[in-house]
Amino acid sequence: MEFLLGILIFTYLLSFVSADLQGDALFTLRSSLQASPTQLADWNQNQVNPCTWSYVMCDSSYNVISVTLPSMNFSGTLSPKIGVLSTLSSLTLKGCGITGEIPKELGNLSSLTNLDLENNRLSGEIPSSLGNLKNLQFLRILSKNNLSGTVPGSISDLPKLINLRLDSNDLSGQVPEHLLHIAIYNFTGNKLNCGKNFSYSCVSSGNGSGSSRNPKVGIIIGIVVGFIILLCGSLLFFLFRCRHKRYKGEVFVDVAGEVDRRIAFGQLKRFAWRELQLATDNFSEKNILGQGGFGKVYKGVLSDNTKVAVKRLTDFESPGGDAAFQREVEMIGVAVHRNLLRLIGFCTTPTERLLVYPFMQNLSVAYRLRELKPGEPVLAWPARKRIALGAARGLEYLHEHCNPKIIHRDVKAANVLLDVDFEAVVGDFGLAKLVDVRRTNVTTQVRGTMGHIAPEYLSTGKSSERTDVFGYGIMLLELVTGQRAIDFSRLEDEDDVLLLDHVKNLEREKMLDAIVDRNLNKNYIMQEVEAMIQVALLCTQSSPEDRPAMSEVVRMLEGEGLAERWEEWQHVEVMRRQEYERMQRRFQWGEDSMYNQDAIELSGGR
């Protein structure tokens, strides 16, 4: 037992030693890049564990697995010490103004799958040591530099390479023929010979085959393809004309078996499994953006460099249901609103269901409230107000403008995403229905997160749009307080474990200052905070019939009708509290009576 304990302690300490070495390497990189005092300011030499540093990701063993720096306009070089980062799988230093040569020590990064040094001022030759990177898939990254010399033959031996870009340099000589057979390549803007008699193009066609060896064959293929396109175009035009007479210019396709549902044609893309597997690096753990009851979400990069979020759904236990799944996907696909997460496409296999969405650069509201890395800005109060209104408008659209209406069933800060402008984008709507479509016990399948679930949904398993209103109210409280819906650190007072009870008690005592997120540093307008809390408490009433519809919530957030609705609610709450206190007194009186009777009996004759 002591021997095993010793091994565990040794392993634990070894992980920190490794982190120290990696921290030293990254700090040396910061110095060699000649970063200014404000650039990478939290890369602190006295805190050599880099796992809390900005732009650095680690695994559970404190190993650095990703370094991604934005365009920071450095003027220095790459430190050879970067070769210490043996666990690094992704290195992205795109557009950072880096000068000097590519250090041969990059060849020591045996775990590297993605290397991006595009659009810098690198010079010299491409080191042949890059041929040691046997896990490398994306070398789309040396383009737009000042590299010279030839393309090393060692790169041809990389077994997993699928994307190679060396365009816009000063390279010369013959391109190794094997590199002209990978999926994506670009050698343009150099003095390179891309094949005998230049029969190969220096840029891939996008499907891994490159250009045709015989130009005549290419011309013939072009003619045939053109004829097919013309024929298909004529057919589609004919069909469109027929539809136009009936639907006044709108193109629809009927869903089999459901005459009343019509889906806008051509909105969604059906992805191949392999395409999403490559985009997510085989669904690597390092690409996980989040996970919940519906499955995991992975960050992915498509072959055209489009960043996406891929949701890999779970809960598909029974056979069949593929057609039903596609119908539901299409229904979600036509729910288009600026405050709803747009569905790009989907993928189905006999055992897998995946949904593809745009990647949201600023992640979720929950992340911005509670999971910020050092140096990242706090979500300001004006942004929180915008988020509250945007999310309300998105839910209003789902409830009142979709046919059939869509109920979210898991409204919370983690499911409200933020685009590049910090606009609220409601995600995961309709997923409960998507997952349940293959189950027989839909009515009893409760979906959601404890603390956000409306009481009637929890007790009966039946949801409605007012279930979403309750979840939205809790999300408003998250925005105001920055806290989670359930917090066991408040166990000292059992009534305050739930955020809703905590806020109710403080509001009743008029202690609004104690409610607001301390990270705001008092940079807010108290009247606006009070209004948002009032809307939240109206949305979280115990009876669903008493809660406002989302269209009314939107109006109240815009300043219309809140005062009247709040006054009515306060009157009802006072009456409820008085009735509750009367019941408590009756109960107490009953207990006292029983106690007195027992005392009488015990004092009888012995």
Topology:
Elements: H1 2-32, E1 56-58, E2 64-68, E3 90-92, E4 114-116, E5 123-125, E6 138-139, E7 146-149, E8 163-165, E9 170-174, E10 184-186, E11 191-193, H2 215-247, E12 252-255, E13 258-264, E14 269-270, H3 273-279, E15 288-292, E16 295-301, E17 307-313, H4 322-333, E18 345-348, E19 353-358, H5 365-370, H6 381-400, E20 416-418, E21 424-426, H7 431-436, H8 455-460, H9 465-481, H10 499-508, H11 526-539, H12 550-557, H13 562-602
CATH class of the largest domain: Mainly Alpha
Largest sheet data: 6 strands, mixed
Strand content: 5-15%
Q: What is the SS-derived class?
A: alpha/beta
Q: What report would you give on this structure?
A:
The protein is α/β, with parallel strands linked by helices and about 600 residues long. The protein has three domains: about 15-200, Leucine-rich repeat, LRR (right-handed beta-alpha superhelix) (Alpha-Beta Horseshoe); about 255-360, Phosphorylase Kinase, domain 1; about 370-560, Transferase(Phosphotransferase) domain 1 (Transferase(Phosphotransferase), domain 1). It contains 13 helices and 21 strands. It has helices at about 1-30, 215-245, 275-280, 320-335, 365-370, 380-400, 430-435, 455-460, 465-480, 500-510, 525-540, 550-555, 560-600; strands at about 55-60, 65-70, 90, 115, 125, 140, 145-150, 165, 170-175, 185, 190-195, 250-255, 260-265, 270, 290, 295-300, 305-315, 345-350, 355-360, 415-420, 425. The strands form six sheets. A six-stranded mixed sheet has the order 14-18-19-17-16-15, sandwiched between helices. Helix 6 (about 380-400) runs antiparallel to helix 12. The longest helix has about 40 residues, at about 560-600. It is elongated.
